Amino acid sequence: MSNLIIRGATMFYGEREDLFVAGNKFVDAPPPGATVIDADGLIALPGLVDPHCHLREPSGDSEAAETLASGTAAAARGGYTAVAAMPNTTPACDTRAQVLSLMRRAKVADVSARVVPIGAVTQGRAGMQLADLPGMYGAGVRLFSDDGAAVASLDLLRIAVLTLDYQGTIADHCQSGAIAGPRAWWPDCLDGDAPPAEEIWPQSAETSIVLRDVQVASETNCHIHLCHISCAESVDVIRWAKQRGIKVSAEVTPHHLLLTSDMVSGGDPRFKVNPPLRSAEDVEALRAGLADRTIDIIATDHAPHLASAKDKPIADAAPGMTGLEQALAVVMETMVNTGRLGWIEVAWLMSFTPARLLLRLRNQAQALGPKMPANLALIDPGRRHIVQADDTASLSRNNPYEGMDLPDPVVLTMYAGKITHQNGIL
Description:
Elements: E1 4-11, E2 16-22, E3 25-27, E4 35-38, E5 43-46, E6 48-53, H1 68-77, E7 80-85, H2 96-108, E8 114-117, H3 133-138, E9 143-144, H4 154-164, E10 169-172, H5 197-200, H6 203-220, E11 224-226, H7 232-243, E12 248-252, H8 254-258, H9 280-291, E13 297-298, H10 307-310, H11 327-336, H12 343-358, E14 376-379, E15 384-386, E16 405-407, E17 410-415, E18 418-422
Parallel strand pairs: 1-4, 1-5, 6-7, 7-8, 9-10, 10-11, 11-12, 12-13
Antiparallel strand pairs: 1-2, 2-3, 5-14, 14-17, 15-16, 17-18
Helix pairs in contact: 4-6, 6-7, 7-9
């Protein structure tokens, strides 16, 4: 950490200001001996917060795909200062002891962003018995998920939200295993090119869970968060629920804002993801849902995999994409540069709302002002590049944007006063 003067930045709310950093906080006057950064033409955003990330630690052999250190380094390159780690690790993060173990790992690892544990809803994420939700809550967990699968049954979901009693939030993976099971991507009875995503992972696999969860939220008056929404029908249901005051929130991933099902039609496993890429009409519905605030949050669902897991026939390949480093770039390309969002909306969708609504991170959910933690991303809105999968801090290369011409916006990321990424600005 060092003392800094960030001169002439355009704040996300439009004003041009100087920012002063002393130690790990913003201060109201230039600190002595400060290094000056010329931020003319740059946008100052609060550090981004990702509420849905797979960091693979602890997972034994899977840690070759990602670790806390490598995953948060990738996060810093994307402008993130906090990432929430999904509990589908080995063992699952389903007890107070596992939560505390992950927090100890993050403390001793060379992390470049805050790591926030997400607790499993059921023991081992097996969908049979509730995990120790009160114990994990006592260890600081505020978001719970069986991600990789929806909470298995209606009764378990109801009991879980009532057990949390407004103190935490269930983030549900909106996928019915009965409709879209492990072989849904390319059933054995089909040969040749992949059929449309709607035939192999139908929208009803998602909307059936969205409808179930909306009903539970309505009946219990408890908040439920809907993960990685991918289709127009889900947006319609969420809009309907919010008009009636039902306590649901929803997220969308950058890849579902840009990529379409056409890309997977030739069987390229890079584009295999759950939920699958959808039609251009669905992509437009997701963009509209962000623009009118039906969708509350942009989350990466960063899912690193080794080549040995991904470079297979599509039916056998692991689903998932890396997403931390290009998330803001994709949001710029699809929403900011098209005029559908401004920078203040980006700050809410990618920082303030996930921090406040889901993770309850008070210090991550405040503006760039004196006495606030020095969490910051400086953005050059004009930079672009051709994405190269090998140019990454992640241990994995399953990047769906390889070869695309996208913005290259993040020139500096600062977490608690420490510069965790810089791209030619110093």
